Amino acid sequence: MTEHKPQEMPHISINAQYIKDLSFENPNAPGSLGALDRNPQIDLFLDLNIVSLPEENFYEVELSIEAKARNENHKLFIVELKYAGIFNLINIPTEQHKMVLAIHCPAMIFPFARKIISDVTQDGGFQPLMIDPIDFGTLYNKKLQEEGQN
């Protein structure tokens, strides 16, 4: 009788998560900390960088988030964060790596980056900046469409 091993399930393993770079600027303090009579203008920028590591099927996925807040009178704050994770893609076909790394991996680490941004803005004297959840699938599909048009 032959033993049949069940095929191993696809799996994403997070081997590490870390802050690569964090910067918070409060350029007009204490003037910027006065009562805000209306919500500030927030400009938010997000970028994703994926690097293949020397070990097979290991990748670094880095989220870069920059938020700038201002009102009519002051630059309120600037926060920049590079937050990354080391991922091992186990039993995932190579042709699916790009999609998994661009959608599933950033979605796994985003809540941690979001919390760091919230905490640092609050520690800087402002209301915590709560970034809305991000649909990385939509961003990935949009990027594919843009690449197809070029």
UniProtKB/TrEMBL annotation:
InterPro entries membership: SecB, SecB-like_sf
Alphabetized Gene3D superfamilies for the sequence: SecB-like
Family annotation (NCBIfam families): PRK05751.1-3, secB
Pfam family, one: SecB
Protein name per its UniProtKB record: Protein-export protein SecB
Swiss-Prot/TrEMBL GO biological process terms: protein tetramerization; protein transport
Molecular function via GO: unfolded protein binding
